[in-house]
């Protein structure tokens, strides 16, 4: 009798758990509907004050779906788990280099105009787009609306940041007459050829072909101008170097914070005092970013980033990213020149 009761109790518990799981899934399905969610209702109220219609916002947010895979992807970003030689192999391959040279040929006039206006070299702009989306081929497979809604209201540490990105995304979609649920990007909500997050889209996207629309999803001309504008606004130094190879002691000096992406506070003279010298001449007071990179399983080496290296890391706050863009730009330029000899 007791066994029968335990067995019946087990069946009841299983049934209750199943109902709970179903209820949880149902809750997820309506999780972002402003009519039942106080957080999204508050977001709607804020955007209504900025001129976005309430009905449009409600219809948009009720279509957003929670995505656990977005949270999982955020936790496993490559910049957090790879060493330089592993990260480099993702982006420095012959196909990406050759297609970068082709992109430069195809958009030579636009890239030259961007360099003249903003001071950013064509190969650097090309490398950014090459790293971000393989020159527009891979713009992302995640619905931006789903990604940003998930991160805004479910990310354990950065919810406030992504809430701002969700608000910006909805404002952009409304202003440009685009249905939010039709736009795709990265798991973190980055969009278009250059993978701008929405607040960067608002701040730095430019209408570089003067057609009245800032379109980074489909227009490579606007994308090129926008990348160049982003760098210029962050202090890019026209004709400045990005990094230099360096030599130094076998054991890395203590007290130097290597591979930082904060604004450079050390100088070339500071590095010399620690036994690290650039293979190219640098002014003693030149600001530098000291880098210590894994070139293989058992080989490390030094590099010194200049201010332009720091500017690249404003795009993605990773020294690995900055170095990948720099090396790809060099390789693309070399390929481009070799094809024109």
Primary descriptors:
alpha+beta, 16 helices, 7 strands, disordered N terminus
Question: What report would you give on this structure?
Answer:
There is one protein chain. This protein is an alpha+beta fold and 341 residues long. 55% of the residues lie in helices and 9% in strands. The protein has a five-stranded antiparallel β-sheet. Helix 15 (307-315) packs across helix 16.
Strand proportion: 5-15%
Distance between the termini: 91 Å
Relative helix content: 55-70%
Instruction: Give, in spatial order, the strands making up the sheet with the most strands.
Output: 4-6-7-3-5
Total count of helical runs of at least 4 residues: 16
Helices and strands, in order, run as HHHHHHHHHEHHEHHEEHEEEHH
Query: Which runs of at least 5 residues are low in confidence (pLDDT < 50)?
Result: 1-30
Q: Which whole number gives the mean pLDDT?
A: 90
Structural class of the helices, strands and pairings?
alpha+beta
Choose one word for the global shape: globular
Estimated radius of gyration: 24 Å
Largest sheet: 5 strands, antiparallel
Count of β-strands: 7
Write the layout of secondary structure elements.
Elements: H1 2-29, H2 38-49, H3 54-61, H4 68-75, H5 78-81, H6 84-91, H7 94-106, H8 108-118, H9 122-133, E1 142-143, H10 144-154, H11 159-175, E2 184-185, H12 198-204, H13 220-233, E3 243-247, E4 266-267, H14 268-273, E5 277-278, E6 287-296, E7 299-305, H15 307-315, H16 319-339
């Amino acid at each position: 009798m007791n066994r029968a009761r335990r067995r019946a109790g087990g069946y009841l518990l299983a049934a209750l758990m199943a109902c709970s799981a179903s209820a949880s899934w149902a809750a997820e399905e309506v999780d972002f509907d402003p009519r039942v969610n106080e957080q999204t209702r508050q977001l709607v109220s804020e955007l209504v004050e900025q001129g976005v219609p309430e009905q449009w916002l409600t219809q948009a947010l009720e279509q957003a779906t929670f995505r656990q895979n977005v949270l999982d992807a955020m936790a496993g970003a490559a910049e957090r788990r790879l060493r330089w030689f592993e990260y480099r192999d993702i982006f420095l391959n012959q196909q990406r280099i050759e297609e970068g040279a082709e992109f430069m040929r195809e958009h030579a006039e636009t890239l030259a105009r961007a360099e003249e206006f903003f001071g950013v070299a064509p190969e650097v702009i090309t490398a950014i787009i090459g790293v971000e989306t393989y020159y527009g081929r891979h713009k992302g497979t995640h619905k931006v609306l789903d990604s940003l809604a998930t991160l805004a209201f479910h990310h354990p540490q950065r919810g406030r940041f992504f809430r701002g990105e969700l608000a910006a995304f909805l404002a952009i979609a409304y202003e440009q007459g685009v249905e939010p649920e039709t736009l795709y990007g990265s798991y973190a909500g980055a969009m278009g050829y250059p993978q701008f997050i929405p607040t960067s889209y608002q701040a730095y996207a430019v209408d570089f072909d003067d057609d009245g629309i800032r379109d980074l999803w489909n227009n490579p001309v606007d994308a090129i101008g926008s990348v160049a504008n982003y760098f210029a606004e962050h202090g890019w130094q026209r004709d400045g170097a990005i990094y230099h190879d360096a030599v130094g002691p076998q054991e890395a000096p203590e007290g130097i914070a290597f591979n930082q992406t904060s604004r450079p506070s050390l100088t070339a003279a500071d590095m010399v005092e620690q036994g690290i010298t650039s293979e190219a001449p640098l002014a003693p007071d030149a600001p530098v970013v000291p880098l210590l990179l894994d070139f293989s399983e058992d080989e490390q080496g030094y590099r010194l980033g200049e201010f332009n290296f720091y500017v690249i890391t404003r795009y993605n706050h990773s020294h690995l990213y900055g170095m990948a863009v720099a090396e790809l730009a060099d390789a693309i330029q070399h390929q481009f020149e070799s094809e024109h000899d």
